[in-house]
Amino acid sequence: MDFRLNEDQQMVRDAARQFADDVVAPGAAARDLTSEFPIDGFRAAGEYGFTGVAVPEEYGGAGLGNVELSLILIEVNRACASTGVTLSVHNSLACNAIFLGGNEEQRKRFLPRMAAGELLGAYSLSEAGCGSDAAALVCSAKEDGDDLVLDGTKLWVTSATHADVFIVFVRTSREPKLHHGITCVIVEKGTEGFRVSKKEDKLGIRASSTCEIVFDNCHVPKANVLGEIGRGFPLAMQILDGGRIGIASQAVGIARASIAASVKYAKERHAFGKPIASFQAIRAKLAEMRARTDAAELMTLRAAWLKDEGEPHGTEAACAKLLASQTANFSAREAVQIHGGAGYLEDFPVERYMRDARITEIYEGTTEIQRLVISRAVLA
Ligand SMILES: Cc1cc2nc3c(=O)[nH]c(=O)nc-3n(C[C@H](O)[C@H](O)[C@H](O)COP(=O)(O)OP(=O)(O)OC[C@H]3O[C@@H](n4cnc5c(N)ncnc54)[C@H](O)[C@@H]3O)c2cc1C
Q1: Which of 97, 60, 102, 118 is nearest to 223 (CA)?
Q2: Which helix or strand (DSSP H or E) is residue 135 part of?
Q3: Reported confidence tier of residue 274, pLDDT bands at 50, 70, 90
Q4: 200 an active-site residue?
Q5: How confident is the model at residue 174 (pLDDT cuts 50, 70, 90)?
């Protein structure tokens, strides 16, 4: 067993680190304040090859693996979790959906422009009545000749304000088992009868947009269906296994940022005539943050590696997301504590980390749902 990154992976991580420090970090605090979507960061990521990381080269991607994607997401999220989730959803959910579920024509039509950072992807499964219980979705699509006609509302669509390609899950038939009769379809921005509606005002990842989307007699060609009509739910779950590795990477990035900010502050801040870094209580916090973050990162990279090896990775992805999201929240909270009163102010980044960390325990499967997935495997 070798825990070291190979030379290529080190180069990818170094490039991502440079991109994060030079392009993403400047303006992250300002974007958080104004909720300005990081579209420039997304386009710049395209120039670095970070918008189609695991897309094979024949479809215009970087042809790398999920370990590399995870390394990139850790670095970007260290700088800005809003830019991080934009890249995670685009790579792990949208590009991956088209690669896994798409036929040759669909892959060639969408992936090269998505991988180049020209088209931004979004993924829409949740609705008002169903998040964890995704199979209960009701947004409908009826067959009409060569088209599907979509009617209904979806909620919480990340990046919807700027996305060009939406991976949407709709109900094409009502069957006794709810997860049957769900279809996955690509809806393009500008399609008649489709609009992005209310944008949510959020606690964290405030520069990322989260919106309601509405379909009203919206005709989408059946040529946009990914896989078979009525067979979309297994695809949704398969894609989410990869997505969870992306969110675990986001959580590791936030935890790493929390440690870095805390170390800097603990060395600079003096109390009782000494830097606070000399106090055992502060050192214990830093040690705990470091140990938990290392564990979370190792579990995240293990899940990514298993995915690259073509091995089952659903349980490992759930384990990584569970631990990493808890670690991000723990580390960000401790970072605020180490900063004392300063940690509660906008002047320091740790209050943003604490707000941003919170979502990692909620989207792409809550903490409770990860425990459900893991416990099923434990008991099997
Ligand atoms: C900022 C943001 C961005 C998002 N982006 C997207 C996106 O891009 N695409 C998308 O499709 N969705 C997105 N979502 C939706 C997100 O995935 C859901 O909010 C999440 O899955 C939880 O669903 P819910 O909100 O309906 O909560 P519910 O499912 O109603 O859960 C409420 C509570 O009950 C618990 N619970 C539910 N079922 C069980 C169970 N069986 N056992 C134990 N506990 C249970 C949950 O863990 C939670 O604590 C986003 C949400 C947010 C807030």
Answers
A1: 102
A2: none
A3: very high
A4: no
A5: confident
CA-based diameter of the chain, in Å? 79
Distance from Cα 160 to the centre of ligand 1, integer Å: 18
Q: Is the pLDDT of residue 1 over 90?
A: no
Q: Give which of 316, 351, 317, 319 is closest to 332, Cα–Cα.
A: 351
368 lines ligand 1 (CB under 6 A): yes
Q: Is 169 left (phi over 0), alpha (psi -120 to 50) or beta?
A: beta
**Which amino acid, one-letter code, is at 87?**
L
Report pTM.
0.98
The domains of the chain, with CATH numbers, are: 7-120 (1.10.540.10), 122-232 (2.40.110.10), 234-379 (1.20.140.10)
Which of the listed residues 366, 367, 369 should we mutate to test ligand 1's pocket, taking the one with most ligand atoms within 8 A of CB?
366
How many residues are given for the chain? 380
What's the CA gap between 313 and 318, in Å, rounded? Answer: 9
